[in-house]
Amino acid sequence: TDDLKAELLSLALEAAHKAGALLRDGRPEDLGVAATKTSPIDVVTEMDLASEKLITDFLGDHRPEDGFLGEEGASSPGSSGVRWVIDPIDGTVNYLYGRPDWAVSIAAEYAGERVVGVVAAPVRGETCHAVLGEGAWRGERRLRCRPSPPLDQALIGTGFGYVAGRRAAQAEVARALLPRVRDIRRCGSAAIDLCDVAAGRLDGYYERGLHPWDMAAGDLIAREAGARTGGRGAAAPDGELTLAASPGVFDALHPLLEELGAWHD
Ligand code: IPD
Known about the structure:
Distance between the termini: 40 Å
CATH class of the largest domain: Alpha Beta
Pfam family, one: Inositol_P
Keywords: Hydrolase, Magnesium, Metal-binding
CATH architecture of the largest domain: 2-Layer Sandwich
Family: Belongs to the inositol monophosphatase superfamily.
Radius of gyration: 17 Å
Bound molecules: D-MYO-inositol-1-phosphate
GO molecular function: inositol monophosphate 1-phosphatase activity; metal ion binding
GO biological process, one term: signal transduction
């Protein structure tokens, strides 16, 4: 499977760069909301749709037997054992507002296991990737998560879903956590948050209710950089908590999040 992983990585990198260039260079000045999904603030732009189409067309041309799961509707089982999990813009609200933290996230699963992850953040000018068992990189630079500080000195990222009831509960958890850690960041892209854990730019990141496409690539990148991920979120079916952190921070944060009720709506 080494050849397969190498092929999947090179296709994922090329697809992410093509989509990233389209999104960065082709963002309309008057970009508006094309549709809403789970709530009025859960938005889709025409560029989310264009990016997903570019990625699925490109990968489908090269590997017509593969399956797809995409945020904007791509869904097919395929027959090759490979499935692509795609977020055509992770951080759509940042993209809509012209803020820099958005990314194209592409993961490949083989026989149900994530084997390749690519997160391209074109405005940051950074692409991270990981291959199962082989490590995580940003360009040529090998990524390693930060040595774990005590929790009260840890910089923790989080995010808030779009569903109103869940947001209120997430705000309560963040309110209770804030005095127990160095500080909290909310960048607006789960994929970038997970890469930031991998790169030592955050000590940990948690969010409840991520979708598989938000975190499939970033989870592998964080793990391959030495972070621990999981906590009822490892394979993160909808609604589960995703937690990724350097190992000591994970061990301290996991029970605290449990105590603060972060697992529940
Ligand atoms: C969102 C981002 C955000 C997270 C939300 C996600 P999208 O993804 O990752 O950081 O807090 O839960 O839905 O909708 O921009 O692809």
